[in-house]
Amino acid sequence: MPPPELCHDLLVDILTRLPPDDPGCLFRASLVCTAWRALLTSPEFARHYREVHRTPPLLGFFENHDTVTPWFAPSSPAASPFPPLFPDRRDLHVLDSRHGLVLLRNPIRITEHDHAVSLIVWDPVGRRQWESFPPPDFASTILCDVGVVACAADDCDHLGCHGSPFLVGYVGTDYRSAHASVFSSETNSWSPVVSCPHPDIEILRGQPKPLIGNAVYFICEYHPNEYFILCFDLFSRKLSKFDGPPIHRYKYALMKTEEGVLGCASMQGSRLRLWLTQTGADGAVTWMRRRVVDLHRLLPSNSFFRVIGFEDRVGAFYLTTDDGVTTVDLKSGQVKKMSDSNIVPYQSVPYISFYTPDQTVEVAEGGRWEEVGDKEEEADEKVEQQVEKAVHELFTKGSKALKDEDFVGALDCKRRILEIRLGFFLSTCYLPLLLQSLAEACVHMDCWIQCSN
């Protein structure tokens, strides 16, 4: 006799206790039976799951590189349903991630002539993107650019912003001025451009861009070892500037402090140094040292660590070394290695969001959201069918050549099969299928060799 089914409320209570920082747990639970899958994929469960846990988990990092396509380094085990599917296979660069959204730039900027052609707002969990749109006109004349994305819904708790209206702030410098504009998904247009003149100004890429209230903050350089902080208000559309902390620009990262104000963090050996800002009645901003934390008991002594960010909702500092990214939670003392790479990224962008199975949402009427991957997967299926047909024909031809003792022709068929499959799977960037295909090709070769003997 099968065991009795759990009552609905008890089942919900059990599944809600699965950890949000390992999305594979919910995904595997959804495979138990159709009843569990129906529960876990329902909007009601997703809403209840977010309300219970409250703090969105860190799912991993998007890592930007100057010479290769960016990739996603998940924080959960390899069995996780993450990493997500990229919107397409163009040269994309991750500019920012916030409120479950990711801002992408096309193309990757390698030289000063690689100006942005289009921007994409991507929802990895909802598996959809906002139709690509051009940047503001000044993008074709600037030398350095950065961008931010943020949910623009009123009274949103930012626990599940999928489908909400958003803003994109785009800022660039041309050595004479900083220019900025805001794109609104509700008006589908850019705001008038505002500028902040300053000689030899250069906004720094690859740095955290904290959003505090309505304002975003960036580090700018104007002479060697001379720099300041640029502030852009996404709602008032104002640009302003003030002095940075008395630290070398590459040794600190801007952050939103636990007090909700602008601060920064830097590493000096094993010591984590924290600063915060205070704004006077006259609007002048001053920097004050908040505290120093010695991490020598938490971190290996043979590595050099640099702060690349802090997430106030997760409560973790992000540190990078030559072999990946590490998170440090000062309250719990927990240290976790998040990524392990032989290619050091110049920027690691954290992705923070809840994930529950099948969280795709319907596209709102009048919007420009579109599902990610469907059209591309259909095209891949047609190409794969053509590839398999060609491989089958070559296999038949090669088998016949072996029977006729035409070994040169048989070897030529083997070579062409490998070239066809290798070319297809490299174009799809799907390594597991590539390895599987090569393994199958090796089996075919063994069969031919045995037949020839």
TrEMBL record:
Residue limits of the F-box associated beta-propeller type domain?
172-300
Kindly give the SUPFAM superfamilies that the UniProt entry links to this protein: F-box domain
Name the Pfam families for this protein: F-box, FBA_1
Q: Which residues form the F-box domain?
A: 5-46
Q: What is this protein called?
A: F-box domain-containing protein
- The species is Triticum aestivum
